[in-house]
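Before going further, learn to read the protein records used in this course. The integers have meaning only within a learned vocabulary of local backbone shapes. To see the layout at work, look at the sequence and tokens printed below.
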Amino acid sequence: MRLFLFSIFVSFSSFSQNIDFEGVVFDTKSETPIPYVNISFLNTLVGTSTDDNGHFIIEISENLLNNRVHISSLGYKDTIMPAEVIYKTKKLSLVEETYELDEVVVSEKLGDAIVLNSIASYDITSGFDSSSTPWVLALYFPNIGASKKYLKNATIFFRDQNEFKSGQSKFRLRFYAVDPETKKPSTDLVRKSLILESIKGNDFTSIDLDALSVEMPRDGIYVGLEWLFIPYNWYKKEDKNNLTNASMIEDRFAPTFGGVYSENQNYKVMIYGMGEWQEFNVKSKGNNKNFIPAVSLKVVKR
């Protein structure tokens, strides 16, 4: 089985002209360009991301200028603007989000290491990939036990796509606290932008989190995998329309994150797109396992 997130195709009237929608996103205070900002047209599956220089460009139907655009980036306040304003000015400014995180005390972390959601490469049965608009895929890890735990290491598994010819792709790793009311991802626990690479032929990548000194919250933590819609990640894929069975060529963006079926009902999957978090729930044939991202988290007790 091969699973794709929201592989939905949006068609527009043949009378609508296509135009280039482009611009640059800046930090309001420093006036420096912001890389890897996600830009989505609300109520559609159309979107893109800024590149390393804060620039974005996407071909859209002229009708979409009547829509509003949702702009989001790690460390900045979410912004919604009319598409027509962006099209005319070709410039966006984001305001840095200011909030206080709990004080981080760097100390020696003694105790046992625990691997949550332990995975091997041969466990991967399918994968998650993205088309049309940027998404964040987040896996919830519960905090079981009374002892304090600190994040030590995260391992993310991938699946190769033959159509993706480039040697590597980029994605952003995020860590979220849990909203006490909705139980959805809320505040970013790490303000630093963690941009990781998936290298073709490698089953996984790992990151050492010791230097960040992040204590696992009492309510657990969400580990987020954020696709970046940049030329670096783009490729074409031939597929079939689910309704007509006709062949078609679709834009896709790497990487393809590995997926596994888990019997552990504590692991919960959420997706973020078009400005909101939604639960993602796919069951196995026996209805006793959930399909989740292949992400392992190592924590150390203190």
Observations:
- The chain has one helix and 22 strands.
- Helices lie at 83-89.
- The mean pLDDT is 86.
- Residues 83-89 form the longest helix (7 residues).
